[in-house]
């Protein structure tokens, strides 16, 4: 059944070369944990991507209930967590996944660093990776505010004070991210929501695409 | 043993697809159940809403009865208002009609049109209903007005959820 549908499409569109390009490539021996168990360190990049996929999916589903508004944000989070089936699990996936992304990404960075895999010709990919790192941190920071509980509020106040301490343009930067010169409130939460859900993921997708295209083009670095 | 032995490649393909499918399902199942929750939420027994209308004061002439109730919408609760046209029929039975026109949902009024006495009239497109809520043929509405289930509690009128006939 599946084969027939595949053949039907393939006959018309010749899709086999396309997915071969994407999925069908050899795993070098030094990267395969079946040959050298220590090769598990090569899994961290893939795991970061896997957790990122979970973050995207669970985030999409959370927005079915969440409202970025000072009156309703906390109420809607409480509702989705306590009155909607599997709400605790879906929110839990997003909550714990957020920490896990940082952990996996950090381990991936350490591996690349200590193996010297960032060296010529892969310097550009290292730079893109650093970009992804900061985008992920920013995603964690903006997502932290959204439940609009006391922890979120005060963490954001601290963030804004740190931003404010920037020389010369601190005041302006602070107003830019908080939406108001002195209040952390209605305009802050909508801004953080927009950044968390639209702007940063858009940047992230671009950077991830560049990251993956480069690694396919250059291949994985050789054994130590 | 059958002639078609499962090859090593097939076996690995099946196990990988199986395990992968199981993991994907474990990930997606909670999210999908989370998303479809409103469809599966138990419909609460429709509660009767108390009004300030004494049943004893009702006549055969339809009277407008306004009522209000607490509406719980997810995490948001609000005070909502509604209206019913209520009268006693010839058997002394209480009849409560929904004022929502069955044409396009405007609000109908008893004796709203001077040219059509003793009819419910919809100002939007001239829909007419007789006193028992039946739509007058030749006017836009395609069905009779919805009816509220009613009951009397301590002399006061209580209304259920309006149902189509």
TrEMBL record, chain A:
Leader peptide range in chain numbering: none
Name the InterPro entries on file: Cyt_b/b6_N (IPR005797), Cytb/b6-like_sf (IPR027387), Di-haem_cyt_TM (IPR016174)
Q: Highest taxon of the source?
A: Bacteria
Which parts of the sequence belong to the Cytochrome b/b6 N-terminal region profile domain? 5-224
- Residue ranges annotated as transmembrane are 39-67, 96-114, 126-146, 192-215
Q: Which organism is it from?
A: Cytobacillus stercorigallinarum
* The protein's name in its UniProt record: Cytochrome b6
Q: Which PROSITE patterns match?
A: CYTB_NTER
Entry keywords, A to Z: Membrane, Transmembrane, Transmembrane helix
Automatic annotation (TrEMBL), chain B:
Coiled-coil region(s) at which residues? none
Please give the name of this protein.
Answer: Menaquinol:cytochrome c reductase iron-sulfur subunit
Gene3D superfamilies in the record, alphabetically?
Rieske [2Fe-2S] iron-sulphur domain
Q: Which UniProt keywords apply?
A: 2Fe-2S, Disulfide bond, Electron transport, Iron, Iron-sulfur, Membrane, Metal-binding, Oxidoreductase, Transmembrane, Transmembrane helix, Transport
Organism encoding this protein: Cytobacillus kochii
Q: How does it assemble?
A: The main subunits of the menaquinol:cytochrome c complex are a Rieske-type iron-sulfur protein (QcrA), a cytochrome b (QcrB) and a cytochrome c (QcrC).
Domain Rieske, first and last residues per copy:
86-159
- What exactly does this protein do? Component of the menaquinol:cytochrome c reductase complex. The Rieske protein is a high potential 2Fe-2S protein.
Membrane-crossing segments per the record: 12-32
The UniProt entry's sequence similarity note says: Belongs to the Rieske iron-sulfur protein family.
Which terms in the Gene Ontology molecular function aspect does this entry carry?
2 iron, 2 sulfur cluster binding; metal ion binding; monooxygenase activity; oxidoreductase activity, acting on paired donors, with incorporation or reduction of molecular oxygen
